[in-house]
Design goal:
- The protein is α/β, with parallel strands linked by helices and 352 residues long.
- It contains 14 helices and eleven strands.
- 44% of the residues lie in helices and 13% in strands.
- A six-stranded parallel sheet has the order 2-1-3-4-5-6, with helices on both faces. Strands 8-7-9-10-11 form a five-stranded parallel sheet, sandwiched between helices.
Length: 352
């Protein structure tokens, strides 16, 4: 019986990665149990204990992530050395931006293991608004690293078409045949957030994103003056636990985005599950997911435009909140969840 070796992502309480460390193995195991074509075992490759602190405005701790991934690489190499990794095994990286992909490919080819390597792309230097895209000045090395990861992998998974197209256009690999659009394995969220869907609403508008430049928190700050009677909450401005954050989502009537970069949008979906109406621009992954619910992209595309459009923008938000229909929001959440926040397509590919 072959083993699927899962390289997980380091868990952080403020990000969904803490949930993935619990739920992704469970969901993979359930899919394995239901797989009639082939029986699998699941092996988890985790790293070191994490501090819980993130680099300012970032998804991770830029130093600690290397420590975590180095421990994973050492653990897997030890298993290869001990003969625990077999030629029929498969490796799944929950984060494609991992040097371990190259290490696994190296061991696979030089030791004749013939491992199948699959990876999940979250972000990278190919995205000009991502931290890597902004901070890395000489893209020659980072683009080549990302291209190498893509080419070393049998399957490259993306949650949305927008993200896949962004990657392919910038990195220009040999072809897109190795890429798959599968949504993301977050089918645990409806049950997790169900208790918060019945919380009493308090006219709260939530900014669920990181407080980083490409997320444009200043947009909502500008608009707040024209939204009297509404409580504006920037989720990352305080160290909220997951239950505290979910409680605020439950109280909210709207979740807001003016993002210049978004390849999926988990915070907006979480808000939907709690009954909040989405306030999102007609661009990025939002256009793919919420086409009938988006406001004109020009209102928030650039900081200067926000000030020019703030009167009509604020009026739109007030109207959207006033027209909020819990049944319609729930139907939208179910539709978006089935297509973009469900791991069925991913598991079918990984366990092929």
């Amino acid at each position: 019986m072959p083993t699927l070796w899962l390289f997980d992502i380091e868990p952080h309480e403020q990000r969904y990665t803490s949930e993935w460390q619990v739920h992704l193995p469970m969901q993979l195991s359930q899919s394995m149990a239901n797989n009639n074509r082939r029986q699998w075992k699941l092996g988890i490759i985790s790293g070191c204990k994490t501090s819980g602190t993130l680099s300012p405005g970032a998804f991770m701790n830029f130093a600690e992530t290397n420590f975590y991934k180095a421990v994973q690489i050492a653990d897997f190499a030890a298993k290869v050395q001990a003969g625990q990794v077999k030629p029929s095994d498969r490796v799944l990286f929950a984060d494609a931006w991992h040097p371990g992909v190259i290490h696994c490919k190296y061991m696979s080819e030089l030791l004749g293991l013939g491992l199948t390597i699959d990876v999940m792309w979250h972000a990278g230097s190919y995205d000009p608004y991502d931290f890597l895209g902004r901070k890395v000045k000489d893209k020659a090395w980072s683009f080549n690293f990302e291209r190498s990861i893509y080419e070393a992998s049998s399957r490259n998974y993306f949650a949305t078409k927008f993200h896949r197209d962004l990657f392919i256009k910038k990195i220009n690999p040999r072809g897109s045949k190795r890429s798959r659009i599968v949504g993301w394995p977050m089918e645990y969220l409806p049950n997790l957030l169900k208790p918060y869907s019945c919380v009493h609403k308090t006219n709260t508008i939530v900014f669920p994103h990181r407080l980083s430049k490409e997320k444009q928190p200043k947009a909502l700050q500008q608009l707040s003056k024209l939204l009297p009677g509404h409580k504006i909450v920037f989720a990352q401005s305080t160290q909220l636990s997951k239950p505290q954050y979910h409680q605020i989502l439950g109280e909210s009537v709207a979740v807001f985005s003016a993002n210049q970069q978004e390849t999926l949008g988990i915070g907006i979906y979480e808000g939907l599950l709690c009954g909040a109406v989405p306030i999102v621009p007609m661009r990025l992954s939002y256009e793919e997911m919420y086409s009938d619910w988006c406001y004109p992209s020009s209102w928030s595309r650039y900081p200067s435009r926000i000030g020019q459009s703030k009167s009509v923008f604020a009026a739109y938000i007030r109207a959207a909140i006033l027209a909020r229909n819990p049944t319609n929001v729930a139907m939208l959440a179910a539709k978006v969840g089935k297509q973009f926040f469900n791991g069925s397509a991913l598991y079918a590919q990984v366990l092929r």
